Amino acid sequence: MTGAESGPVEDRRDSWEGPVPVPTGANSEFWAATLEGELVHQHCEECGTAQLYPRAVCTDCGAVDPPFEASSGVGEVYTYTVCHVPGEPGFGDRTPYVVAAVDLEEGPRLLALVDCDPDRVEIGMALEVTFWQVSDEAALPVFVPQ
């Protein structure tokens, strides 16, 4: 990891009622980076595959423990849905909200909340990452329009 920040961290520990990630094994380094405002992904040294979310092996070649590198935190909406019915406890007061598949500049795609007016989101929309700290161990990557 480079140590370069890719987005601000907003402390939401007192108000967050949604699911809270539990860092374990291969994803511990990912969640530690989120607390520092850094979005990281794994980049396999064997085959060059970039992957996110973290796994113990490369999803392409099976190499063990692909190393992490910093992401710019910039991407675009590949596809999205507007949720009118809360999918998880703690999301009832957020409806409607946007969940998008975000293509990062570095290649990986991840599902994430997009914090914007649901009427404004569109495929190809440029996004940048920000973080909502929801526990002492993790901050959720949340995207906002650029």
TrEMBL record:
InterPro entries, per database record: ChsH2_C, ChsH2_Znr, NA-bd_OB-fold, Thioester_dehydratase-like
Sequence ranges assigned to domain ChsH2 rubredoxin-like zinc ribbon in this UniProt record: 31-63
Span of domain ChsH2 C-terminal OB-fold: 70-131
Region (Disordered): 1-23
Record-given protein name: DUF35 domain-containing protein
